[in-house]
Amino acid sequence: MKRKKKNSRQSRCLLHFFNAILTIKKHSGEKPFKCGQCDKSYKNKRNLVHHQKLHIGEKPFQCGQCEKSFTYKQHLLSHQMVHSGEKPFQCSQCGKGFIQRTALVTHQLVHNGEKPFQCSKCGKFFAYKTALARHKQDHSAYLVSHQRIHNGNKPFQCSNCSNRFADKWSLVKHQRTHSGEKPYECSQCGKRFAQSSNLIVHQRTHSGDKPFQCSQCGKRFTRSSNLVVHQRAHSGDKPFQCSQCGKRFAHSSNLVVHQRA
């Protein structure tokens, strides 16, 4: 009887000891269980085994409504909500529903204005990690496109004419001059435009919005280019020069009229 009590005390002591070790590891951030196929580490063996299923490719949980299979049961349960239309996680501010709690948490950043993800290249902040990832791709694309300005490389050629372009988007916009395509339509008057930037400027004629203001006289303009031209009246800048007589003009249109005379 005494031996049983002694063994019981020893068992409890060992249990407390191991629990204490686990608690210390939890707070220390130690992750001794390392995956042999990638650089991920885990605090306990169970989580490591759970992770290694991804490498094995084992997908034992199959959806009964489609052919998709999943590594983890929780992923299957989330997927099945796509079929049922169930969205158990609802935003308290706008009522929008989500299949996953993580998606709801990410969505709520829109309401509180929080933007925790910062671009290391330009300092811009984003509410979503995916938005930051897309933004970083823009940096890479813009850099490649910009470098072509220096090396003169224009790999994108128009199939209708001999014009070449440094980036694909410039080629797409140019090709609309041949096709007559105008995909951007004004919702108020139906007028169509080849470029989204032209639609934005046009919509200001309906709204009366003039976002570009002169810092010297307060006059406002719908286009930034109009503001630049206006500011020459204050600065006296005349960047357009006649090649024959040397006379200078603030506006290119005035130079054209002068050269015709």
What integer value in Å does the Rg equal? 32 Å
CATH architecture field of the domain at 182-261: 2-Layer Sandwich
Unreliable stretches: none
- The strand count comes to 16
H/E element sequence: HEEHEEHEEHEEHEEHEEHEEHEEH
Category by helix and strand content: alpha+beta
CATH superfamily of the domain at 182-261: Classic Zinc Finger
Strand content: 5-15%
Assign the CATH topology of the domain at 182-261: Double Stranded RNA Binding Domain
CATH class group of the domain at 182-261: Alpha Beta
CA(first)-CA(last) distance: 121 Å
Q: Please state how the strands of the largest beta sheet are arranged side by side.
A: 1-2
Average pLDDT taken over every residue: 82
Outline:
elongated
Portion in helices: 40-55%
Largest sheet: 2 strands, antiparallel
Subcellular location: Nucleus
Organism: Meganyctiphanes norvegica
GO molecular function, one term: DNA-binding transcription factor activity, RNA polymerase II-specific
Domain C2H2-type: 33-60, 61-88, 89-116, 117-155, 156-183, 184-211, 212-239, 240-261
Blueprint of the fold:
Elements (H helix, E strand, L loop, with lengths): L1 H27 L4 E2 L6 E2 L2 H12 L4 E2 L6 E2 L2 H12 L4 E2 L6 E2 L2 H12 L4 E2 L6 E2 L2 H23 L4 E2 L6 E2 L2 H12 L4 E2 L6 E2 L2 H12 L4 E2 L6 E2 L2 H12 L4 E2 L6 E2 L2 H9 L1
Antiparallel strand pairs: 1-2, 3-4, 5-6, 7-8, 9-10, 11-12, 13-14, 15-16
Pfam families: zf-C2H2
Subcellular location: Nucleus
InterPro entries: Znf_C2H2_sf (IPR036236), Znf_C2H2_type (IPR013087)
